Amino acid sequence: MSIETYDPATPDDLGWSQPDIDAIVVPPLSHPASAEPARVFDHAAMVEHVFDHCARHDLPLVWCVSDQMFEAGGDEPIKECLIPEPIDSGLRRLVKTGSMIRARKAKHIILRVGPLFGIEGEDAWLPNIIDTLLAQKTISAPQDVVVGPTSVEALSMALTGILLQINYGATHWGAYHLAGIEPVTPFAFSSMVRTQLDTLLSGQGLERPLGDVRALSHHHDQPMRRVLNCQRLLETYGVHQRPWRVELERLLKHWCEQAQAGEVNL
After folding, report:
1. Residue 74 burial (CB < 10 Å; 0-12/13-18/19+)?
2. Has residue 50 got a pLDDT over 80?
3. 107 and which of 60, 126, 157, 158 could share a cystine (Cβ 3.0–4.6 Å)?
4. E strands within the chain?
């Protein structure tokens, strides 16, 4: 099975004329709610361009979308059938793109994902937290926003399972959700990173003074919950949510092993 991941920085042809491509995956735009509007609009236009190509050539499109689309969150886990209704103009532009894709009824999966984290990459979340802590600086993170973090590797595994089933004839198109088990605030997540990093470094004889984590409050009336209901993905493609705590511990252990081997700077 041949899968093409579309990067808007690559040349326009992208080898799309190759007959052995079975699907095209568009990664999520990181932090669309705080991104420059022009960047968000460009991303939406790019997705529409890719989708037009997929529709013409009967190729499945998998578009990963940030959970920030649900700007106001919800009291209950957000179901897949719910269409976001954000106020932000950039987020509304992304919703418009999603509505167009659904209306065309072509082969597509819109995969809404929780905040992504990994140990590599510009927007991988963990590198920024680790670097800030090692620099003995303070991390400020909301304590009244509840989300479901998702590891990049968990997303990759889920996509692999979905695409393999599509390759073998699955035709269950539409919107799906993927997020980590056990909703958490960014403050609690960052605090957990600090605790585990301190424990792991000490256990390897690499003690370092670390910065602190400070709680911020943006929603003074009640916490804003942006928790995704992932039941449809489980029932349709058999993809389970992966516990973010387990994923986080594994990634931090790997990072500390690299630090002990001198492969990353402390």
Report:
1. middle
2. yes
3. 60
4. 2-5, 21-26, 61-66, 108-113, 116-117, 139-142, 145-147, 150-151, 174-178, 213-216, 224-226
How many other CB atoms sit within 10 Å of the CB of residue 14?
17
Task: Say if residues 232 and 176 touch (Cβ distance below 8 Å).
Answer: yes
CA pair distance 13, 48, nearest whole angstrom: 15
pTM assigned to the model: 0.90
Let me know how long the chain is. Answer: 266
**Residue 21 token pair:** 């491509």
Residue 164 near residue 119 (C-beta atoms within 8 A)? no
Q: Is the pLDDT of residue 233 over 90?
A: yes
Apex 204 CA angle, 199 and 210, nearest 5: 45
Q: Report the C-alpha dihedral over residues 243, 107, 86, 90, rounded to 10 degrees.
A: 100
How far, in Å, are 21, 157, 265 from residue 239 at the CA level? Answer: 24, 9, 36
Could you tell me where the DSSP H helices lie in 143-185?
Answer: 152-167
